[in-house]
Design goal:
This protein is an alpha/beta fold. Helix content is 59%, strand content 6%.
Length: 440
């Protein structure tokens, strides 16, 4: 029965994949070709070439990986394992074609190198390319956008060895846009930026939900928004300051998180990993958060055992003494850190968690503690978010009879803990909820 349902699901996904292919294939050739033909008639087409690009060699054989993206494009629609993954991947590919074509119309550019005549099989492949591809659809490179989006899908479904091989091939595809003399460097950079923005804006996993922010969260949102606007204006005003648009985008997205989008802006899964797109887009903020953690944790111990094998501490650098990790950070990526069990329940930094979040976090912590001898409950520094959850866990498990006792026990183990009046209030509310559950 289970095998039959699995097969039906696969057949259904293949049918949907075929539908997406029927939609996307003609749309790509129609929109791309029409925009190319139109731009060829314009008299305002410029070019952006960096001097060192003239040293890029023409390598005819790289037309093979260049063309291979068409085959990989089709295959990508049939390797998805869920309707959500397929739908969002299809939407990403649709957005790629539309956004790229808009870019070609808004900023018309022309490739300026004259490609040498090529014979043999490689020459035939170039001839097929030239039949529909005029040198006007340049920035952002749709080839680069698709290379990024397709690689994300293939790496999701391949083992470690195959993932390395596919990564090498997709890198070769990306380089081939230069070595086949199809694109200039600005096209590659802009294509990568657009690709990351598309994959970030249309995540394959998770659901973004807006939640009414607290007054304190809105203050933080305002500060990050102001910072983002400052970088944005500087990037637009300073000559060659375009790089400043990166921290501007990162800070504005974090501001959106505090303004109601919450932890979804970090795209962190239950295993502690941020999506690759989020790591790229938010890198300036993430780097700042990491440097801040390193600075403020200089005189703070990694962790302190509070009760029954449950330790309170900061986000570990590489190794930890505990068997399991309960990660409450939204802004840090697990990466190569090893633990017998790593479970994440992301909470926004500097914001007091609500009772529903505390309730869920305590339940997950209790389950981890029952399965493992030792558990590290961590946030950035192990001073507020994690301390609040551990205090609530002490109350839930009956290891403390009141909020005052729970906080006193935690501070006796980790004196640097910072719990404000707002933290204590939410703990009191949680404690009263527990008492109501116990009372007949």
């Amino acid at each position: 029965m289970a095998e039959s349902m699995l097969m039906q699901n696969k057949v259904s996904l293949w049918k949907q994949g075929l539908c997406w292919l029927v939609l996307l294939g003609p749309l790509f050739f129609l929109s791309y070709g029409q925009v190319n033909q139109f731009t060829a008639t314009r008299d305002d087409v410029g070019s952006m070439v960096i001097g060192w690009e003239h040293a890029i060699p023409f390598m005819p054989w790289t037309i093979v990986p260049y063309w291979s993206i068409d085959l990989l494009y089709g295959i990508s629609l049939f390797i998805c394992t869920s309707k959500q993954e397929l739908t969002r991947h299809g939407c990403r590919l649709l957005a790629a074609s539309l956004i790229a074509c808009v870019g070609f119309l808004v900023l018309p550019l022309k490739f300026t190198f004259v490609r040498p005549e090529t014979q043999g099989m490689f020459g035939w492949l170039f001839q097929q390319l030239e039949q529909f591809d005029l040198p006007y659809n340049q920035a952002p490179s749709l080839h680069i956008i698709l290379t990024w989006l397709l690689w994300l899908r293939f790496r999701q479904h391949l083992g470690e060895g195959a993932r390395l091989l596919s990564g090498a091939w997709f890198l070769l595809i990306a380089l081939s846009v230069l070595t086949t003399w199809q694109h200039h460097f600005i096209d590659v950079v802009s294509g990568f930026v657009v690709g990351v923005m598309i994959s970030y804006a249309i995540p394959v996993e998770g659901h973004g939900r807006w939640k009414r922010p607290s007054v304190h969260a809105m203050r933080l949102a305002t500060k990050y928004c102001v910072g983002g606007i400052v970088f944005l204006l500087a990037g637009l005003w300073i000559p060659q300051g375009v790089i400043l648009l990166w921290p501007a985008a990162a800070l504005l997205m974090v501001a959106a998180g505090y303004a109601g989008l919450g932890v979804s802006v970090f795209q962190k899964n239950i295993h502690g990993d941020l999506s690759l797109s989020a790591r790229w887009l938010l890198f300036p903020y993430l780097a700042g958060a990491w440097l801040s953690k390193k600075w403020f944790s200089r005189r703070i111990s990694l962790s302190n055992v509070v009760y029954g094998g449950v330790a309170l501490g900061r986000f570990p650098d590489r190794t930890m003494a505990q068997a399991a990790v309960f990660d409450l950070t939204a802004e840090f990526h697990k990466g190569s850190r090893k633990a017998e069990r790593w479970e994440a329940y992301p909470l926004m930094d500097l914001v007091v968690p609500g009772v529903p979040d505390i309730r869920q976090a305590v339940m997950k912590l209790s389950q981890l503690q029952q399965r493992h001898e030792s558990v590290l409950v961590c946030c950035a520094l192990g001073l507020s978010r994690s301390a609040t959850v551990v205090a609530a866990w002490l109350l839930k498990e009956g290891h403390a009879g009141s909020v005052t006792q729970a906080v006193a026990l935690i501070k006796s183990r980790r004196p640097q803990v910072v719990l404000t009046f707002a933290h204590l209030q939410v703990l009191e509310t949680f404690s009263k909820e527990l008492q109501c559950q116990i009372s007949p």
